[in-house]
């Protein structure tokens, strides 16, 4: 009797799984086989794979996401590492997380001001003698702002991985004669790699789909997968094609997840 | 030397992290109309903001959606975590967890686009209802993820002990399990709230013409260019987040200190 | 014999065809201190859980005061458990933990307060009611776990290795306290442990278990002096176990000699094992010795020396001696006939008891003549 009762608890969650997890994914795949005239077709896929524009856009999008992830990682690892050595590190970590609570659009909006013709960035460039440049609506500005937005999401998992690291390992490494750098390279970094991978997951996939940034900062010069989907769904109303790109994005996501998710954090079988 | 480098590096990172936000807030007090040269102090943009009926209605909408969706998501997510925790078969559990995480890892556009198809197919009108449902949907998995670890921490012998002392299944749930996992439930609710307030892309897809949240409103205004009323808005929102974070940190510290003091009494 | 409070009849437990308990029969009388003793994984905790109601048995009956309770859920059984990890509720204070079971029963508030105070008094933590669980030491948590169980006034208290997390000194102190508590409450304690010293010190009766079976049951003295087989002899206390052969009743051969012993009823020439406890061996001159051994090494244990030695045939000997010996020298050892205990291979407890019966009555008749 108790068994049956506890199954009742599962109903709302089960409904959610069916309606908002399984159904939408199934629907987007289903929709990708329909053209503008609601006819079943494979043409969306054939168009996608035969069109240089779509393929180039996909490659570009992946390349930008890669660059954003790379820069984010390069900035975040040392930050997390140094942060972790501070005395009130939990407090400082909170200060890192705080900007993520400011709406992403407000941050993008701030950069519209900073990168504008007479904005702060150009005033600085003028001051050091380079003179004003077109900054807003360039690829570089898009990457810069995206990196800025993603940094906390990379710092957090790396910081947690450093926090999980048993300090005895570091002491043992020193004890066995390793220098600081050797300890870092051979002990600390490999052991915090799961944190880096989690960070890559948290940064790379969203970077493929940041359509508001490409609109506000990239000035439509950068078209990511996300931008293309938004355009097909909300502007040209070609849902079939939009869904096809969506399926490509889902596949990209699965690839990234398998590449970065092979290591079980705890309790996994030793390899 | 190393210490100094670390400090300088951290200071630089923090400057980069906070400069844009401070920049926004500073110009919210500028008499000009653009974010280029500071023209002297004024409250004018804040006055505009607080007399902008449309904006205030949108703020109310946003908060309503956030609170309502977080409450419902917390309820459903907690029930979900309880059922996942009860599964004994490893395969069932892992597949439930994988399904749970689909919305966590999916890009916003995919969630938005697929929900749009879903609502259109079921002929659900776009607006408050569709936005609320979407927010509940993408908040549930984070609640599950916040509650589950707490459930796992609960030792089996604690449940045995409660039963041993005469607790029925319902008493077990209401007197032992829920109080024990309540920190996880609160954390889940809190995270759900921030997810809702932060969301732009999903809402952008499933909102109709008549309904708007803050993110969507900022997006459409930002596309039209600089408007210092938005700066004023960000000032208000920054203050709001500071209060939230401060409160959160204070509660954490207070509970830690309380425990600490009690331990000292004993030793 | 009074009505048993707990009885297990032919209890078998299997997980996916893997046997955990094999045909367990045991009887607990009211007001006694029982111990289930065995290595980890022997099934002793499973027995506890079948009595508490957390685990269903595959076959057999669990009886409480003569009533079959196999189908009674844990929360309806009049037994309570003290868990190995204490399982105190971290979100409640000490008093709330102790009161938990009573509040579920909707006991009136004044009575709850009275009984909680009494229980805390009993475990000597009367002033700790308002403390948080996390503010208690391990020993204090242990006592609260006991208080939480006994406040329910169970007829049987089950204790699952409750002392294993405590340090050695505290553990010894708690042994006295548990024994004392059991006698004051006058209820049945069933204590699970893998620590033989603990079992010997506290119990009225011990059940020695291995691999899902009860090998031997009896008073601590019986089990120590007359272990039924190699496993029990080895598991309980320190012992020298030597291969030998039965020559006749009260005559056994080992280590190249023939000795008088206190065992009988075993066929002549049957291979047997002989147990001699190290403290029953006495060092002496080789002339007066029953056996001669060479000292290998020794450790000072405080109140005695633990000496490792080897005899002519290469058997290892462990000797406890008040005086030290010199490494490498040959010394004699001697012992009394009643210090030898002969064990037959594969003898079951029932057979052992039956055999003992035959010659112990013989003993008496012989004494009379």
DSSP strand content of chain A: under 5%
- Could you give the order of the helices and strands of chain B? HHHHHHHHHHH
Spatial separation of the terminal alpha carbons of chain B: 41 Å
The parts of chain B where pLDDT drops under 50 for at least 5 residues are: 262-267
Instruction: Tell me the quaternary state.
Output: heterotrimer
- Which CATH architecture of the domain at 65-222 in chain A is right? Orthogonal Bundle
The rounded distance between the terminal residues' Cα atoms of chain A is 43 Å
Pfam families (chain B): BPD_transp_1
Organism (chain B): Levilactobacillus suantsaiihabitans
Membrane topology (chain B): Multi-pass membrane protein
Domain ABC transmembrane type-1 (chain B): 59-249
Task: Characterize this entry briefly.
The complex is a heterotrimer of chains A (271), B (267) and C (369). By secondary structure, chain B is mainly α. Chain B has helices at residues 2-28, 44-50, 53-86, 90-105, 108-121, 128-153, 156-164, 169-198, 201-206, 214-223, 228-266.
Topology:
The complex is a heterotrimer of chains A (271), B (267) and C (369).
Chain A lengths: L1 H30 L11 H8 L1 H33 L4 H9 L6 H11 L5 H8 L11 H26 L2 H9 L4 H29 L2 H6 L8 H11 L3 H22 L11
Chain B lengths: L1 H27 L15 H7 L2 H34 L3 H16 L2 H14 L6 H26 L2 H9 L4 H30 L2 H6 L7 H10 L4 H39 L1
Chain C lengths: L5 E10 L2 E11 L4 E5 L6 H9 L6 E6 L2 E2 L10 E4 L11 H11 L4 H14 L15 H13 L5 E5 L7 H18 L2 E6 L2 H7 L2 E6 L2 E6 L1 H6 L4 H6 L4 E9 L2 E4 L2 E4 L10 E6 L5 E3 L6 E10 L4 E7 L4 E6 L8 E5 L6 E4 L4 H20 L1
Parallel strand pairs in C: 3-8, 3-9, 6-7, 7-8
Antiparallel strand pairs in C: 1-2, 1-4, 4-5, 9-10, 11-12, 11-14, 12-13, 14-20, 15-19, 16-17, 16-19, 17-18
Helix pairs in contact in C: 2-3, 2-4, 3-4
């Amino acid at each position: 009797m108790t068994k049956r009762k506890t199954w009742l608890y599962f109903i709302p969650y089960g409904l959610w799984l069916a309606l908002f997890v399984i159904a939408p994914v199934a629907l987007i795949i289903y929709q990708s086989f329909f053209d503008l005239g609601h006819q079943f077709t494979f043409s969306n896929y054939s168009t996608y794979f035969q069109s240089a524009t779509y393929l180039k856009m996909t490659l570009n999008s992946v390349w930008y996401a890669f660059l954003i992830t790379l820069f984010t990682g390069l900035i975040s690892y040392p930050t997390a590492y140094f942060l972790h050595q501070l005395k009130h590190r939990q407090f400082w970590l909170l200060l890192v997380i705080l900007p993520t609570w400011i709406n992403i659009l407000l941050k993008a909006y701030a950069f519209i001001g900073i990168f504008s013709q007479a904005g702060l960035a150009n005033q600085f460039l003028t001051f050091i003698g380079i003179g004003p440049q077109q900054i807003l609506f360039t690829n570089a500005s898009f990457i810069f702002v995206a990196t800025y937005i993603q940094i906390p999401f990379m710092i957090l998992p790396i910081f947690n991985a450093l926090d999980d690291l048993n300090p005895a390992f570091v002491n043992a490494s020193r004890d066995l004669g390793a220098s600081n750098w050797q300890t870092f390279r051979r002990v600390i970094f490999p052991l915090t790699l799961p944190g880096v991978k989690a960070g890559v997951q948290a940064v790379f996939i969203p970077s493929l789909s940041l359509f508001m940034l490409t609109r506000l900062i990239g000035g439509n010069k950068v078209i990511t997968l996300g931008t293309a989907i938004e355009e097909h769904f909300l502007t040209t109303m070609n849902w079939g094609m939009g869904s096809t790109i969506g399926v490509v994005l889902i596949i990209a996501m699965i690839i990234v997840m398998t590449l970065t998710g092979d290591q079980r954090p705890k309790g996994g079988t030793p390899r | 030397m190393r210490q100094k480098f670390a400090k300088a590096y951290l200071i630089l990172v923090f400057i980069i992290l906070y400069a844009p936000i401070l920049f926004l807030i500073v110009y919210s007090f500028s008499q000009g109309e653009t974010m280029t040269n500071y023209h002297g102090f004024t409250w004018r943009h804040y006055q505009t903001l607080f007399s902008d009926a449309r904006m205030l209605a949108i703020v109310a909408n946003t908060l309503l959606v956030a609170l309502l969706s977080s409450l419902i998501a917390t309820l459903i997510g907690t029930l979900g975590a309880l059922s996942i925790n009860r599964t004994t078969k490893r395969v069932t559990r892992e597949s439930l967890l994988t399904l749970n995480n689909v919305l966590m890892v999916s890009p916003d556009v995919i969630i938005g686009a697929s929900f749009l198809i879903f609502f259109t197919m079921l002929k659900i009108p776009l607006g408050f209802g569709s936005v609320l449902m979407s927010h509940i949907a993408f908040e549930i998995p984070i609640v599950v993820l916040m509650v589950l670890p707490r459930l796992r921490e609960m030792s089996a012998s604690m449940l045995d002990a409660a039963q041993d002392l005469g607790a029925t299944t319902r008493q077990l749930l209401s007197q032992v399990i829920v109080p024990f996992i309540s920190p996880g439930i609160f954390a889940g609710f809190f995270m759900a709230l921030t997810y809702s307030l932060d969301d732009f892309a999903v809402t952008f897809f499933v909102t109709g013409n008549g309904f708007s949240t803050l993110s969507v409103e900022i997006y459409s205004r930002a596309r039209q260019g600089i408007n210092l009323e938005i700066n004023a808005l960000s000032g208000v929102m920054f203050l709001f987040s500071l209060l939230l974070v401060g409160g959160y940190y204070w509660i954490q510290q207070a509970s830690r200190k309380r425990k600490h003091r009690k331990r000292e009494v004993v030793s | 014999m009074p009505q048993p409070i707990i009885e297990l009849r032919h209890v078998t437990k299997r997980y996916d065809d893997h046997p955990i308990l094999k045909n367990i029969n045991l009887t607990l009388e009211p007001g006694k201190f029982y111990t289930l003793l065995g290595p980890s994984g022997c099934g002793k905790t499973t027995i506890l859980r079948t009595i508490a109601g957390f685990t269903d048995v595959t076959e057999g009956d669990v009886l409480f005061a003569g009533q079959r309770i196999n189908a009674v859920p844990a929360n309806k059984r009049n037994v309570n458990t003290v868990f190995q990890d204490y399982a105190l509720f971290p979100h409640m204070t000490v008093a709330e933990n102790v009161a938990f079971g009573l509040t579920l029963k909707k006991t009136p508030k004044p009575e709850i307060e009275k009984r909680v105070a009494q229980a805390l008094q009993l475990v000597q933590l009367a002033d700790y009611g308002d403390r948080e669980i996390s503010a208690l030491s391990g020993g204090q948590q242990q006592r609260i776990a006991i208080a939480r169980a006994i406040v329910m006034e169970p007829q049987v208290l089950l204790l699952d290795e409750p002392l294993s997390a405590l340090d050695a000194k505290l553990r010894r102190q708690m042994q006295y306290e548990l024994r004392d508590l059991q006698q004051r409450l006058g209820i049945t304690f069933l204590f699970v442990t893998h620590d033989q010293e603990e079992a010997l010190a506290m119990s009225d009766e011990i059940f020695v278990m291995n691999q899902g079976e009860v090998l031997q049951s009896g008073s601590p003295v019986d089990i120590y002096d007359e272990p039924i087989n190699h496993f029990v002899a080895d598991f309980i206390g320190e012992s020298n176990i030597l291969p030998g052969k039965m020559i006749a009743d009260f005559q056994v051969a080992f280590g190249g000699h023939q000795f008088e012993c206190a065992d009988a009823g075993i066929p002549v020439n049957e291979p047997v094992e002989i147990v001699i406890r190290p403290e029953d061996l006495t060092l002496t001159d080789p002339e007066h010795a029953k056996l001669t051994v060479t000292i290998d090494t020794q450790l000072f244990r405080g109140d005695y020396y633990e000496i490792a030695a080897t005899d002519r045939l290469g058997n290892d000997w462990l000797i406890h001696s008040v005086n030290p010996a010199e490494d490498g020298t040959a010394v004699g050892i001697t012992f009394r006939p009643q210090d030898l205990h002969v064990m037959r291979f594969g003898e079951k407890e029932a057979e052992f008891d039956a055999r003992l019966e035959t010659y112990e009555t013989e003993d008496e008749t012989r004494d009379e003549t």
